[in-house]
Amino acid sequence: MYVHGETLRTQKHSISALDILPHQTARMCNMTFEETGGDNSSDRMETVAIALEEVLSSALPQGCITAGVYEAAKSLNADPDNVVLCLLATDDEEDVALQIHFTLIQAFCCENDINILRVSNMRRLAEILGGVKPGGEPMDLHCVLVTNPQSSLWKDPALSKVTRFCRESRCLDQWVPVINLPDR
């Protein structure tokens, strides 16, 4: 087992663990699409969209959803380690102020190793999450955070699928992949 900074000495050269790790990471991120487990892009996207719906549906009753750009920013500032997924959703790409918020949130999430997805079809997202606050006011679903429940670490197979998709997308230089939630 290699420890950060340790050196492995052989007869001909010495190799630092720092020399080995980038090669392992590069191999993991240079896999072809077939090697990452996908054989059909549309099937893969549909599978991730279904998994995302499952994650949202199971997180909602546990109180693990934070909706709204301002609320999400407060939550990210207070406890970024508790956030497992950030969703950025819009049907209006023309809103410059919203795009600026998205850019800042994306940068924060990337720096704190929080998985990010861009979600299209806000109407479907509103259906999944209820879309209305208790007073009848519509929810701001432009930014939705999924957090871990306070009781224990969340072991959800659907969340694992979404997390794996985000990790594989980053390896393919797609830092904020787009998922279309299909109408039901």
From TrEMBL:
Its main location: nucleus. Residues 51-130 form the Ribosomal protein eL8/eL30/eS12/Gadd45 domain. One of its GO terms (biological process) is DNA damage response. It is found in: Nucleus. Keywords: Cell cycle, DNA damage, Growth arrest, Nucleus, Phosphoprotein. Signal peptide: none annotated. InterPro entries: GADD45, Ribosomal_eL30-like_sf, Ribosomal_eL8/eL30/eS12/Gad45. Pfam families: Ribosomal_L7Ae. GO terms for cellular component: nucleus. SUPFAM superfamilies: L30e-like. Belongs to the GADD45 family. This is Growth arrest and DNA damage-inducible protein GADD45 alpha.
